[in-house]
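Annex B. Sample input.
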Amino acid sequence: MNKRGFASDNNSGVHPEIMKAIMEVNNGHTIAYGNDIYTERAKAKFHEHFGFDIEIYFVFIGTAANVLGLSAATRSWNAVICAETAHINEDECGAPQKFNGFKLLQVETHDGKLTVDLIQKHMKGFDFEHHSQPKVISITQSTELGTVYTVNEIKKLADFAHQHNMYLHMDGARIANAAVTLNKSFKEFTKDAGVDILSFGGTKNGMMYGEAILFLNKDLGKDFKYVRKQGMQLASKMRFISAQFERYLTDNLWFENAKHSNQMAKLLESKIKEIPQIKITQKVESNGVFAIVPKEIIPELKKEYFFYDWNEVRSEVRWMASFDTTEDDILKFVELIKSKV
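Annex B, continued. Sample output.
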C-alpha cells in the first residue's frame, strides 16, 4: 500500500462503507440515466438536508458541477466574481470561460474569503454594453486556503448579490469540513443564508467519484436536464453515483469523516507550532494547514511524504488531512520535519 501523504484529500482511498454501497447496487439490471430507485433514494437524502424546494442533479466531477451550475445563471456577456484562489480561476484549466463564455473577475484576498468591500471594485458597468455584466458571486466553502465563511458572512454576500440582481454560487467541494467547523446543518449556511447554486462535493471526504449540483433557487434549475446532457455529464449507470451519496448522507458518515480530517489538521497545527523555524500562514479551520517552511528541507520531506508547494516564492506549502489520516501519520511526519530543520 502506498504511504499516506498530505498532498490532497483527493489522494485518499474510498471509505469502506461507500465501497460497500457501490457493491450492493452492483446486482442485476435497473433503468439507466437516473430513472432508478437508488437515485430517488439519494435525492430523498438531499431533501432531508436541504428541504424539498430544490432541484438536484448528479454529475461526475467537481469541475463539471461548477461549470454547468454557473451556466444556469449566466450568459456569455456576464461576469463571475471570485477570489483569485478560487478553483474556478486557478484549477479548472479555463473550463468555466471556455464552456460558458463569461468573464472571471478575480479578487485578491488574504484568506481566500470574499467580502462586500473587496468586490465593490467590480460592481460597475451595469447596463453598459461595452462591459461584461456582473451576474454571479462565487465563493468556496471551505476555501482553498482552508478557511471557513460564517453564516453571517455568507448572508451579507447573498443579500448584496440579490440587491444587484445577481446570484450567489458556492463551490462546496469541502462543504462537509465547513459544516463540522461551523457546527451547523448544510441548509443553515447555504439555502437559509441565500445561496442560489451549490456544488456539493463528496469525493474529498470518502466517496469514489460523483458530485451534485443543487439549485437552491429552484427557478435556475429549469431545463437543466438538457444542459447536463449537452455538458456530457448525464451518467448512464447513475446508480453508482447515487448509491454513494445515499450512504454518505446516512448515519452521519459525511460528518464523521470530515470531523476526523479536521481534527487531524488541528493536531498537525498544534505540533507544527512547536517548531520555531516554521510559520503557519492561515487559520486552520478545516482540514488544511498552510505553512512557510525552510526551502532547503522541502525536497527532503517530499521524499517521505508527498505534498504540494502553494507559493514557491515565499516557500509556502499546503498539507491536507484526509478521512483516513491517522494520528501516527501526523506524529511521524512532524518527527521527520524536526529532524530536518
